[in-house]
Amino acid sequence: MATLRVLVVDDEEEFVNALVERLNIRGVDAQGVTTGEEALDRIEQCSFDVVLLDVKMPKLGGVEVLMQIKARLPELPVVLLTGHGSARNVEMGELLGAFDCLMKPIDIEDLLRVLRQAATEN
Fold it and tell me: Which of 10, 40, 65, 85 has a 20 to 30 A CA-CA distance from 48?
């Protein structure tokens, strides 16, 4: 099986660094960014199998980033991650083509399962 390539997008730098490290330890090629703008730049520069995207971020929020990703790369699966549980944002994400929406905190093995599923189903 090819190495899973994941872009982690969250405005909490410590969270991004820790999650990227945990994914890398498990054989995932993970990169992290802390803004929506950086995420859009990175998907133009690199190829990813899945984007893990925080819903609530300052400036360019997760739903807006999801819309722009789907406009540029409609086949790229996006898994939303939220610590706030906004039903409206979850519904909007699903309508806009998010693969799934997960709640923080999430078990790393559950996250890996969803990321692999997203990569293989698209």
Answer: 85
Please count the structural domains in the chain.
1
- For residue 78, the Cα-to-chain-centroid distance in whole angstroms is 5
Question: 112 is written with which tokens?
Answer: 């890996």
- The pLDDT tens digits along the chain (122 residues) read 579 999 999 999 999 999 999 999 999 999 999 999 999 999 999 999 999 999 888 898 888 999 999 999 999 999 999 876 566 666 777 777 899 988 888 899 999 999 999 999 86
- How big, in percent rounded to 5, are the helix, strand and coil portions of the chain? 45, 20, 35
- As a whole number of angstroms, the distance between CA 18 and CA 41 comes to 22
State the residue range of the domain holding 40: 5-121
Q: Return the beta strands (E) in 4-73 as ranges.
A: 5-9, 29-33, 50-54
How would you class 28 by CB atoms within 10 Å of its CB: exposed for 0-12, middle for 13-18, buried for 19 or more? buried
